[in-house]
Amino acid sequence: MRREALNFLICPNCGGQLALGSDALPAESDGQIMAGELMCTTCTSKFGIRDGVPVLLPANLASVKLETASRFAEEWTRWSDLRDYYEKEFFDWVAPLTPKDFKDQLVFEGGCGKGRHTAIVAGHGAKAIVSLDLGESAFVAFAHTRKFPNAHVVIGDLLHPPVRPVFDLAFSVGVLHHLPDPAAGFASLASRVRDGGRAAFWVYGYEGNEWITRYVDPIRKALTSRLPAWFLRLACIPPAIFLWAVIKLFYRPGPDGKGPHRLPYGDYFAAQYHYPFDEIHANVFDQLVTPVAHYLREDEVRPWMATDFRDAAVRSHRGYSWAGLGTVCRENGAAAESQR
Ligand SMILES: [Zn+2]
Known about the structure:
The protein is of the alpha/beta class. It folds into 2 domains: 54-61 and 76-205 and 300-336, Vaccinia Virus protein VP39 (Rossmann fold), CATH 3.40.50; 210-289, no CATH class. Helices cover 34% and strands 22% of the residues. The chain has helices at 63-76, 85-93, 116-123, 137-145, 182-190, 210-222, 229-235, 237-250, 266-271, 277-289, 298-301, 330-339, and strands at residues 18-20, 25-26, 33-40, 46-50, 53-56, 106-110, 128-133, 151-156, 167-173, 193-204, 309-317, 321-328. Strands 1, 2, 3, 4, 5, 6, 7, 8, 9, 10, 11 and 12 form a 12-stranded mixed sheet that branches. Helix 8 packs across helix 10 (277-289). Zinc ion binds next to loops.
């Protein structure tokens, strides 16, 4: 971690200011503090800095969340390179936000995985981005982003985010649906945004994914989420080969980049037409590895920004997922509260 991260970080237990212990060891080359201790100046909780990443987990963390995070970390520490097409995917997910919306902004990322989006946002000139993840993948994210002076990776729980409520923009892409309570996760993400700042999300939809909830989910819950990761990785090869062949045969994108309208997931699979096989395999593995995955209905997602937001817009992304963007406006929420 860089010393500047202390401008944004707080104690996850009480919200108090953190101070760096005298044993902190700066790396010789780039000023990152690779090991040491942080102490809360209010409640005296202590937190370690491990391999450059502050570990700011709250005292009472539910084990299911740690389990989900560690299942994903299996994958992210393995498929750990960052690829060109991640940038296009990211701006598709957070649209209508564009690179200029991140420039000179204080950005908070709820769930960063291996840091693919952290690197994109840092590279587009954010004033700072603080990226949170629950699991070991944060160490991969740190390795991917340590060259950026404006990127800060932290291990923490999104429901007890160890950051100040000062951010201009917060986003969570592909993460909230893996929390036990996605709505609470989004509320917690948005709580870290200053009044007038914006919050964005992208989650799996129920609509357009009925076959997954009907046929794949029972298998995931009963079997695949419990398999050893190495075995599941092997078991995913045949279905991934099948899917890869189907995409290559039937989902060549048209000149407009869109997929065949008559086939299911037309735009989604067309977007993956040029992906290498290991990315398709990673996506199949992703669907089957996690203990928790919610497929959210439009009427579950819309209320997330019903109060405390203005200019809120929820849109279907390619017919199988939901993306939302809104401006935080707490007076609205307070006025609605007082009218009740
Ligand atoms: Zn504290």
